[in-house]
Design brief:
heterodimer, A: mainly alpha, 80% helix, globular, B: mainly alpha
């Protein structure tokens, strides 16, 4: 299975430029995520403190409800909120994007409301997919951290000083690449569910097979846009150092920029891979 | 698309304004201002000799803002002593006394703050050559707040003042007074935290005045009477200073180390003192 990466990117860019309405669902996700970010920013102050402080105190400790400790716990809270948003609304809204891309490819006028109505009918499936993907990425990352840490420890043991110093950066880079590889095998589940109208299980299997057959094409197609996310990831890896050298609120600025970059990249990737599925022949045993 | 974007941004901005307004005057905002001031002070501490007046003024302004805008927040309790210290560093003794007075007036139930204010006031009066006034504050500390770290230090501080002013010969009687005071407290509060703290102060006064034999006896007494791990570890440097470096009697230090090993149940402490005994053997 050969994937024309450049051609696909060109088509995705043209589609977005001509039909910016396909970005509307992503904009909605962005709005919900920014809302969460804002609530997390204000949680140590009244009136939100009465609701959130006891929870943070119980699970993280007293220091994290005070300034600047709250900035550090905010990163974890935002990550949790992003997972929550993805499960409850993210998968659904990306499905709406894919429905609109399908409509455009079928020379129909993309309509947001119609897309939402159509997607909501299969909400249970998208919810399940969201939950599954979040769980897969979460546990896979935990396992990867464990393995990469062991690998880095071995590397540090037999390496010169400059490599030891760079070890934390290896960790971020390795996790990033790991994430991209996992995305290669899971990114097509949603397009298959929406475009080919497959069940969640069949879509998973197809996505896995497609990922194996067209690995390098998909890998490049995902990796290059995701490289835009790398500077954010690097900054998020050293929040204490960064906050110490600038000011604690910089963490929130990074989180805000991160939301924008991630959503822009994901919207582009979703459109790209949707076109990829649409352009592959219906009977193609991918 | 543009309309939706405008609506979303407006909603987020409105929510930001509402939540900011609702959170005004909160303890969290006080923490932010206090943190800013402390960051500035940390910067000054790195290079205190070349601290620009503007930086000092900005730290002072931030600390005063915490006190004026958030007087009931926990940050105000921390800002008071920091402000007093900052003013004292700038030799603004009158202002430091005024802030100390305010501290006593506004936080009369917070013993830690009251004692800090009294001690700072005494130091400021001393710097202004008003020793009689300083002595009044030290007397209050000694009589009313003796069970606090600063209250306990008051007699030693007073004796030290006479040493600086009159020299070692004429200050002897003041140190004797301090020693008598700590001895009395040791007996009256034997077996309590205050009794231990008084014994520890006694050791310090003996070391300070060069009474090594008495210091050694006091340390031996502490190990016998207060066999808590933390108390015994605290005495280790004193034992070395008194018996090894000053009195040149390492066998006595060894004896005390063995006693500590017998009394402690903590393996790490045993290992530490085993190593200390081995070190004594080779020295």
């Amino acid at each position: 299975m050969k994937i024309g990466v450049k051609k696909n990117w060109g088509a995705a860019c043209a589609l977005i430029a001509e039909n910016p309405v396909v970005l509307m669902p992503t904009l909605m996700i962005g709005f919900i995520e920014f809302l969460c970010l804002e609530l997390i920013y204000f949680f140590p102050r009244p009136p939100l403190m009465y609701l959130i402080d006891p929870v943070v105190r119980k699970f993280f400790g007293e220091v994290f409800i005070h300034y600047p400790g709250n900035m550090l716990v905010s990163m974890k809270l935002v990550r949790g909120a992003e997972m929550f948003v993805y499960v409850f609304a993210g998968a659904l809204l990306y499905a709406v994007t894919i429905i609109m891309v399908k409509d455009i490819a079928g020379r129909k006028t993309p309509k947001l409301r119609a897309g939402v109505t159509k997607a909501v009918k299969r909400y249970a499936g998208f919810f399940l997919l969201g939950a599954l993907l979040v769980a897969v990425f979460y546990f896979e990352q935990k396992l990867s951290v464990l393995l990469i840490q062991k690998g880095i420890r071995l590397l540090v043991k037999f390496s010169p000083a400059f490599i030891v110093k760079a070890a934390p950066h290896f960790m971020s880079l390795a996790l990033f690449l790991n994430n991209v590889v996992l995305t290669v095998f899971t990114v097509l589940v949603l397009p298959f569910m929406v475009i080919r109208d497959l069940s969640i299980f069949k879509a998973f299997v197809k996505s896995l097979v497609f990922g194996m057959r067209g690995f390098w094409g998909l890998f490049v197609m995902i990796l290059v846009p995701y490289l835009l996310h790398l500077p954010m990831l690097a900054m998020k890896s050293f929040p204490v150092v960064l906050a110490g050298k600038t000011f604690p609120e910089v963490i929130f600025l990074i989180l805000a920029a991160d939301i924008i970059v991630v959503l822009a990249v994901e919207a582009f990737v979703v459109v790209s891979v949707s076109l990829c599925v649409i352009n592959s022949a219906e009977g193609d045993r991918i | 698309m543009k309309k939706a974007l405008f609506i979303y941004v407006t909603v987020l901005a409105a929510l930001f304004i509402v939540l900011s307004w609702l959170g005004r005057g909160s303890a969290y905002n006080a923490e932010k201002v206090f943190y800013g001031a402390m960051e500035t002070l940390r910067g000054i501490e790195k290079n205190p000799d070349v601290a620009p007046p503007m930086v000092l003024a900005s730290a002072e302004k931030a600390l005063r803002k915490v006190l004026d805008d958030y007087p009931k927040s926990p940050s105000a309790n921390m800002a008071y002593p920091e402000l007093v210290e900052l003013l004292m560093k700038q030799r603004k003794y009158d202002e430091a006394i005024a802030v100390s007075d305010e501290m006593i007036l506004k936080k009369p139930d917070t013993i830690a703050l009251v004692t800090k204010a009294l001690f700072a006031r005494a130091v400021c009066h001393e710097k202004k050559n008003e020793w009689a006034k300083a002595l009044v504050d030290l007397e209050i500390l000694k009589s009313k707040y003796i069970n606090t770290p600063l209250g306990l230090q008051a007699p030693f501080y007073a004796a030290n003042h006479y040493l600086r002013e009159n020299g070692p010969e004429k200050s002897g009687k003041y140190f004797d007074e301090a020693i008598a005071f700590y001895k009395g407290l040791m007996k009256s509060s034997s077996g309590t935290t205050l009794g231990y703290a008084a014994s520890d102060m006694l050791v310090q006064v003996y070391i300070y005045t060069g009474k090594w034999e008495e210091a050694g006896m006091a340390v031996t007494g502490i190990i016998s009477e207060y066999p808590a791990d933390t108390a015994m570890i605290h005495q280790a440097p004193y034992i070395e200073l008194i018996y090894v470096k000053s009195l040149k009697r390492p066998e006595k230090a060894r004896e005390l180390f063995v006693k500590i090993i017998e009394k402690t149940g903590d393996e790490r402490i045993k290992q530490y003192f085993d190593a200390a005994i081995k070190k004594l053997g080779t020295s």
